[in-house]
């Protein structure tokens, strides 16, 4: 299984070498995301402190957790309207991702939602990337993981307007199963 190759230290070492700007974070495609943060307070989970340091003192930033997603647990007193995960879940093993998503589901307000936006493997199997120690999962695997985490898909769609040389990107809006 591709996720067995994930090494959190290798991933952190890779990201330490990336510039803490939009161009670095988006792999040379800074125009992909023009406005992500407007009008809402955002807590951030980011293990690479140079990236979170670049966000400090911004008016929309709430709490910054300098840990990996595999180690993050929301405070029991905190409930979120939205937990947004974009291009980061590939750094978790399948088992870690299931546990992380379970935590997310429990940290939601009554009508809250978990969003997952990730690249998709088009090979019918997961693909391990040695460069950043991550996995690009196929749609079927992600759906299975969501099910095991107690989440159901409320809506999903393929991201439009991205460069053709990139993997397809799918956005999943998830809610806890009732």
From TrEMBL:
Keywords recorded for this protein, A-Z: Methyltransferase, S-adenosyl-L-methionine, Transferase
GO molecular function terms listed in the Swiss-Prot or TrEMBL record: N-terminal protein N-methyltransferase activity
Top-level taxon of the source organism: Eukaryota
Catalytic activity as recorded in UniProt: N-terminal L-prolyl-L-prolyl-L-lysyl-[protein] + 2 S-adenosyl-L-methionine = N-terminal N,N-dimethyl-L-prolyl-L-prolyl-L-lysyl-[protein] + 2 S-adenosyl-L-homocysteine + 2 H(+); N-terminal L-seryl-L-prolyl-L-lysyl-[protein] + 3 S-adenosyl-L-methionine = N-terminal N,N,N-trimethyl-L-seryl-L-prolyl-L-lysyl-[protein] + 3 S-adenosyl-L-homocysteine + 3 H(+); N-terminal L-alanyl-L-prolyl-L-lysyl-[protein] + 3 S-adenosyl-L-methionine = N-terminal N,N,N-trimethyl-L-alanyl-L-prolyl-L-lysyl-[protein] + 3 S-adenosyl-L-homocysteine + 3 H(+)
EC assignment: 2.1.1.244
One Gene Ontology term from the biological process aspect of the record: methylation
A single Gene Ontology CC term: cytosol
UniProt: S-adenosyl-L-methionine binding residues: 86
SUPFAM superfamilies membership: S-adenosyl-L-methionine-dependent methyltransferases (SSF53335)
Family affiliation: Belongs to the methyltransferase superfamily. NTM1 family.
UniProt name for this protein: Alpha N-terminal protein methyltransferase 1
Organism: Phialocephala subalpina
């Amino acid at each position: 299984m591709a996720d067995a190759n994930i090494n959190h230290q290798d991933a952190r070492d890779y990201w330490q070498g990336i510039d803490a700007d939009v161009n670095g974070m988006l792999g040379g495609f800074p125009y992909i995301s023009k406005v992500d943060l407007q009008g809402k307070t955002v807590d951030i989970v980011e293990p690479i402190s140079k990236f979170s340091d670049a966000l400090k003192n911004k008016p929309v930033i709430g709490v910054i957790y300098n840990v990996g997603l595999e180690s993050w647990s929301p405070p029991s007193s905190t409930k979120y309207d939205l937990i947004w995960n974009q291009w980061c879940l590939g750094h978790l093993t399948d088992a870690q991702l299931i546990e992380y998503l379970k935590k997310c589901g429990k940290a939601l307000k009554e009508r809250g939602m978990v969003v997952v936006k990730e690249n998709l493997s088009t090979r019918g199997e997961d693909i391990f990337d040695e460069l950043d120690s991550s996995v690009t999962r196929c749609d079927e695997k992600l759906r299975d993981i969501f099910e095991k985490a107690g989440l159901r898909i409320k809506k999903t769609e393929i991201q439009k307007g991205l460069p053709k040389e990139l993997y397809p990107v799918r956005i999943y809006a998830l809610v806890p199963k009732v």
